[in-house]
């Protein structure tokens, strides 16, 4: 294939940074101080007050542009569909939180009411999320175990076990909301960026494994107490397999049938989603059928099947969180807050890009913080979003959070008037629905091979996070993942892939010497590139790689030269015949008139031609390099330690008669070098050049001038 390329020709002087500034006037900007930023932040006027209100209440922004005729019908249909799915997921995910199923309906209702006003995403469905439910459930079972005494908390006095568990779950959720609200007010929404897609994928995959194992007791109809702490998953599996012969066959058959049917219909929904106006609500259909069959055949008494049982009718009065639970669960509540926001924000970002509107991370933190605090006051547990619900809300025509509000109203209707219809629902059905909805998260195991082939450090993060979360628990696993992620960042910056650059013949472009054939490398010139910041942790690595690239250690050469100079002084004092007049002229370049031996042996010439022929008993490493060019185009910052190490390295090269040049240095770094008194008699500002080609041309020109000729025109440059 022939590619037609345009050409350009530029004729300009060879610039150093100093000469460029002489020819082009630079604007010196005044940088604002922290006090200036504080004053600007605290300054208020009518425009800023209006923007603050619109920012805090995003509903005002999208309600002003709401197209009733075009969007309302889609929002209603979407809200009804999403509401039915939210009810089923709320019932199922409440099992993960170790709570009675009816409290899952509260999570489908209360958090959505406040997010409707405060959230910036128009498409996410706010409610229960399996990973958060499991993390809350871990705290619940730790403080209120199924077997044994609960934790010594004053607020538990006079409460049943279910009431104690509800108090713990709501208190943890309230504390989670406080953390999210505080982060939003302090404008630290950026913290979620430290959770990479790889880390979140490994973490959610491990959570899916935990969720699946936790639901085996419902699917098999076994009695397995909740277990917490490291290796809890192994101990749970042990207890399941010890009782495997006691499996309730009715529960197992129902679960298998539910999982197979739901899986097949979900696959059909995905395959024919372009033709279906609304995905088939198979979870709702199977739940209704299971309720009817269970009630008609009296599964509870005939087959000893555990059912949902008494549902809470209506809503209860709000409760205050328990401070003692705060103290017991603060360590777990913070990662729950981070994970809940990270998942919701990543899903919201996908749909905001798809539908071309912006979301605000800090406002999302505030919205979820207030929503969780409000919901916890009415006994709901941790809320975020689930990808399946959000996908349904968007694909079924939802345009705004009016769809979310309608879905909350559907949950309210079921809670207030229709909850009794769900009482005969077998718990194994809910467990089966939970497991079959894990397909998306479990399929993330496929990323292991992809990451292994593409990026080994990312593979380490994924596998380490997943194994850590599976074996040590979700909270510790998240910490392990963050540690591994930070280690990979340190590894990449501490050991960057340095390279030697050469000129691509016929161009002013410079590329890695190992990557191209048609190259030109001027004799005596070495171009070295480091593609990372230079700081205290990698300055020694930088110096080692630089020495490796040039082929000699300047400090060792300098020591050898000092030693040789002492020997030469000794030979001259002895008037040794090994040093001829011709040898003296080659060794100490001087004017013809001053060709005699130096009269003062303590004042030998500073400039010595070390590449000349030396006396037989004197050996000094030969240095054929005359110019070293450092490409700083990828260096984003220098710290003080690195600056000292860099200055030492540059001086070592300068003292062995190698001209050093630094190219494409960031203006901020140059300012810092000036402010830190980096420059002196040996390290000059004239070393800095705007481009590699400028530096190479200058280096060759200067070398030829030193030799007494000008032959750059004879080179390929």
The protein's oligomeric status is: single chain
Number of strands: 9
- Using only CA atoms, what is the Rg? 36 Å
Tell me about the largest β-sheet: 7 strands, mixed
Helical stretch tally: 29
Shape: elongated
Note the gap between the termini: 29 Å
Beta-strand level of the residues, as a percent range?
under 5%
The share of residues in helices is 55-70%
GO cellular component, one term: membrane
InterPro entries: SLC26A/SulP_dom (IPR011547), SLC26A/SulP_fam (IPR001902), STAS_dom (IPR002645), STAS_dom_sf (IPR036513)
Subcellular location: Membrane
Organism: Champsocephalus esox (pike icefish)
Describe the model:
Mean pLDDT is 87; it is low at 590-606 and 710-714. It contains 29 helices and nine strands. 39% of the residues are buried. The chain has 717 residues and is mainly alpha-helical. The longest helix is centred in the middle third of the chain and has 32 residues, at 323-354. The strands form two sheets. Strands 3, 4, 5, 6, 7, 8 and 9 form a seven-stranded mixed beta sheet that branches. The chain has a two-stranded antiparallel sheet with strand order 1-2.
């Amino acid at each position: 294939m022939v590619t037609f390329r345009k050409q350009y020709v530029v004729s300009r002087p060879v610039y150093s940074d100093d000469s460029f500034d002489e020819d082009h006037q630079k604007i010196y900007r005044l940088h604002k101080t922290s006090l200036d930023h504080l004053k600007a932040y605290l300054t208020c006027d009518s425009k800023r007050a209006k923007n603050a209100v619109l920012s805090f209440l995003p509903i005002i922004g999208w309600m002003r542009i709401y197209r009733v005729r075009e969007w309302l019908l889609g929002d209603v249909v979407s809200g009804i569909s999403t509401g039915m799915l939210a009810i089923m997921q709320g019932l199922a995910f409440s099992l993960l939180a170790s709570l009675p199923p009816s409290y899952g309906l509260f999570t489908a209702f209360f958090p959505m009411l406040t997010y409707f006003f405060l959230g910036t995403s128009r498409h996410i469905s706010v409610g229960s999320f399996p990973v958060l439910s499991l993390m809350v459930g871990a705290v619940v079972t730790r403080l209120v175990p199924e077997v044994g005494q609960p934790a010594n908390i004053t607020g538990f006095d006079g409460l049943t076990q279910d009431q104690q568990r509800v108090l713990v779950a709501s208190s943890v959720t309230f504390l989670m909301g406080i953390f999210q609200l505080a982060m939003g007010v302090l404008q630290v929404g950026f913290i979620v960026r430290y959770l990479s897609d790889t880390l979140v994928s490994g973490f959610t995959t491990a959570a899916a494994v935990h969720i699946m194992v936790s639901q085996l007791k419902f699917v098999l109809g076994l009695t397995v107490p909740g277990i917490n702490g490291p290796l809890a998953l192994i101990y749970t599996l042990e207890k399941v397999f010890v009782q495997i012969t006691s499996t309730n066959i009715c529960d197992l058959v129902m679960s298998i049938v539910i999982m197979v049917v739901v899986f097949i219909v979900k696959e059909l929904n995905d395959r024919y989603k372009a033709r279906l106006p609304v995905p088939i609500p198979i979870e709702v259909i199977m739940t209704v059928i299971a309720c009817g069959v269970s009630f008609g055949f009296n599964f509870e008494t005939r087959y000893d099947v555990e059912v949902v049982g008494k549902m809470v009718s209506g809503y209860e009065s709000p409760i205050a969180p328990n401070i003692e639970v705060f103290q017991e669960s603060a360590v777990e509540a913070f990662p729950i807050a981070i994970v809940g926001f990270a998942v919701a924000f990543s899903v919201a970002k996908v749909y905001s890009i798809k539908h071309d509107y912006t979301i605000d991370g800090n406002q999302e933190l505030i919205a979820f913080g207030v929503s969780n605090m409000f919901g916890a006051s009415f006994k709901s547990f941790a809320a975020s979003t689930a990808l399946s619900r959000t996908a349904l809300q968007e694909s079924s025509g939802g345009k705004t959070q009016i769809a979310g509000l309608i879905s909350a109203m559907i949950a309210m209707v079921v809670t207030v008037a229709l909850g009794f219809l769900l009482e005969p629902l077998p718990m194994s059905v809910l467990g089966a629905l939970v497991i079959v909805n894990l397909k998306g998260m479990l399929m993330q195991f496929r990323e292991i091979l992809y990451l292994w082939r593409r990026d080994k450090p990312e593979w380490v993060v994924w596998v380490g996070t997943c194994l850590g979360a599976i074996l040590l628990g979700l909270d510790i696993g998240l910490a392990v993942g963050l540690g591994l992620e930070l280690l990979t960042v340190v590894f990449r910056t501490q050991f960057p892939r340095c390279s030697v650059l050469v000129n691509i013949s016929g161009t002013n472009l410079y590329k890695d010497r190992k990557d191209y054939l048609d190259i030109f490398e001027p004799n005596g010139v070495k171009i070295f590139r480091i593609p990372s910041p230079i700081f205290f942790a990698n300055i020694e690595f930088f110096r080692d790689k630089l020495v490796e690239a040039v082929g000699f250690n300047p400090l060792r050469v300098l020591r050898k030269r000092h030693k040789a100079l002492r020997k030469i002084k000794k030979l001259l004092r002895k008037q040794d015949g090994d040093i001829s007049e011709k040898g003296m002229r080659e060794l100490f370049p001087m004017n013809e008139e001053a060709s005699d031996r130096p009269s003062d042996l303590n004042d030998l010439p500073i400039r010595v031609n070390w590449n000349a022929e030396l006396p037989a008993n004197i050996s000094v490493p030969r240095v054929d390099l005359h110019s070293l060019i450092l490409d700083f185009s990828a260096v984003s910052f220098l710290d003080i330690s690195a600056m000292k190490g860099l200055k030492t390295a540059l001086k070592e090269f300068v003292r062995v008669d190698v001209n050093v040049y630094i190219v494409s240095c960031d203006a901020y770094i140059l300012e810092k070098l000036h402010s830190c008194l980096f420059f002196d008699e040996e390290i000059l500002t004239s070393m800095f050049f705007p481009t590699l080609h400028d530096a190479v041309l200058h280096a060759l020109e200067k070398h030829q001038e030193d030799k007494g000729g000008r032959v750059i025109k004879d080179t390929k440059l």
